[in-house]
Amino acid sequence: MADTKKSATLTIDGKNYELPVLSPTAGPDVIDIRKLYAQADVFTYDPGFTSTASCDSTITFIDGDKGELLHRGYPIDQLAEKSHFLEVAYLLLYGELPSADQLEDFESRVTMHTMLHEQMVNFFRGFRRDAHPMAVMVGVVGAMSAFYHDSTDISDPWQREVASIRLIAKMPTIAAWAYKYHIGQPFVYPKNDLDYASNFLRMCFSVPAEEYVVNPILSRAMDRIFTLHADHEQNASTSTVRLASSSGANPFACIAAGVACLWGPAHGGANQACLEMLREIGSVDRIPEFIERAKDKNDPFRLMGFGHRVYKNFDPRAKVMKQSADEVLDLLGVENNPTLQVAKELERIALEDPYFKEKKLYPNVDFYSGIILDAMGFPTSMFTPIFALARTVGWISQWKEMIADPQMKIGRPRQLYVGETARDYVDVEDR
Ligand code: SDX
User: What is the three-class DSSP state of 160?
Assistant: First the structure.
């Protein structure tokens, strides 16, 4: 727990209120206002939570000014280069890098939960073929509550553990089947002799008519994309999962809420929107037109994949993703990918533009990810489901941390009410 040697003094109507200041292991101090309303009969006001800490956490730390992202203290660029997704998942869930035996046991437990209850196939078939895969994921993940009753009691640590493993293990199958259903191909079942990323690629791209051999370049790139999306502090979808979970709702329903929130174009939906934007730009010579639109206050257009609430420097994930895009496209022989050329030139021009410099807008995790996923053969509609698949371990880790926190209570924000004060009902004949 943070130490509380310092305090802040708030003066309201000539009266002073002492508020404890909590000092973290990294990042800004936090003014503890939990008793403010009781003491001073006032609320604080922070729509969008730009200056509000909603919890304490030991999982992920972001320094937006330095462009630093740590998972349990380990820098994301080191994890992306030296680790792999299920090892990072273990780190996020349990707090330390696993021994070889711990990792083998964890990967085995995940592998043994990758299949879905066979009756869940009926949920997929209830959707229109042209349903967005995220709509399917929201529905099917929520429906897991109806099938896995033996892991919905959040007061039981063992059930919490089983639900965690089930969600991490089954998200690739759900995402892959949402894709297969969307394109009218038969579902492909997971294979236990494949690693996590290879299994997902095979479930997405293999067909019964021929053998599917996993391309190691693609599975390494897929695994790295999963790692780069695993967790990111108290972002909108993670905060959604925490708030939903604070009522005691079961983990499957809460993760479904996280999937729903992630779908928005300002959040996880940006990877799809970004590639569609790059395609709309189409060529380098049209970039200035779009830069001007992004700067125009009267134009709702924004450069998708640019900007971030926390990063006011490069998103370290974007740097790794950019390197990976170069490697994967080169290894795949996708020379001079026009979309990648537009992205690189757009980034160069934007980073030199005074507007973007002044507002500290840099490429974020969504700027390059879509280029790699597109080169791997995924349609843009699958970009956010892949983000949701990877972020599930972050949502689950944050969920476990909150549920185990003795301070945990239901989240219930207040408001600045600016509506009508009390008034009497008026009969319709008198209106
Ligand atoms: C993710 O929180 C997380 O950690 C999220 C995430 C994760 O891993 O969970 O990192 C994943 O969601 C990444 C972000 C993906 N979204 C996009 O790429 C969509 C485009 N970006 C923006 O919509 C925006 O930058 C946000 C939503 C990401 C951040 O918005 P903020 O923090 O609320 O900032 P803002 O909207 O107040 O913008 C500040 C200023 C504004 O101008 P002014 O009103 O001050 O004049 O910068 C401008 C904005 O108009 N601005 C942009 C811009 N982003 C912000 N102008 C043009 N293009 C952009 N992309």
Answer: helix
Burial of 312 (0-12, 13-18, 19+ CB in 10 A): middle
DSSP code for 151:
G
Look at residue 279 and tell me whether its pLDDT is greater than 80.
Answer: yes
Mean pLDDT, rounded, of the chain: 95
Give the E-state strand segments of 259-373 in sequence order.
none
The CA distance from 304 to 288, in Å, is: 15
Question: At 19, which helix (H) or strand (E)?
Answer: strand 15-23
Confidence of residue 64 (pLDDT cuts 50, 70, 90): very high
In this structure, are strands 68-71 and 74-75 parallel, antiparallel, or unpaired?
antiparallel
From the CB of 266, is ligand 1 less than 6 Å away?
Answer: yes
Tell whether the model's pLDDT for residue 127 goes beyond 90: yes
Calpha distance 64→49 (Å, rounded): 15
Q: State how far the Cα of 370 lies from the Cα of 274, in Å rounded to an integer.
A: 7
DSSP-derived letter for residue 247 is: T
Ligand 1 centroid to Cα of residue 204, in Å, is 31
The first and second tokens of residue 190, run together, are 């997971």
Give CA–CA dist 416/195, Å, rounded.
51
For residue 135, with 0-12 CB atoms within 10 Å meaning exposed, 13-18 middle and 19 or more buried, which class applies? middle
- Which of 242, 309, 319 has most ligand 1 atoms within 8 Å of CB, for mutation? 309
Going by C-alpha positions, the residue among 232, 217, 229 that lies closest to residue 325 is 217
Integer angstrom CA distances of residue 369 from 2, 358, 382: 36, 25, 12
Measured CA to CA, the distance from residue 196 to residue 86 in angstroms comes to 8
Ligand 1 atom nearest 308 alpha carbon: 28
Say whether pLDDT at 336 is over 80.
no
Domain-wise residue ranges, the chain: 7-53
Backbone angles phi, psi at 8, to 5 degrees: -120, 145
Q: Is the pLDDT of residue 1 over 60?
A: no
Q: What is the mean pLDDT of residues 382-392?
A: 97
Secondary structure of residue 308 in the 3-state scheme:
coil
Give the active site residues: 308, 366
Residue 114 carries which DSSP code? -
Rounded to an integer, what distance in angstroms lies between the CA atom of residue 118 and that of residue 112?
15
Mean pLDDT score, 277-306 = 94
Chain segment 25-62, per-residue pLDDT in tens: 999 999 999 999 999 999 999 999 999 999 999 999 99
Architecture of the domain spanning 7-53: Single Sheet (2.20)
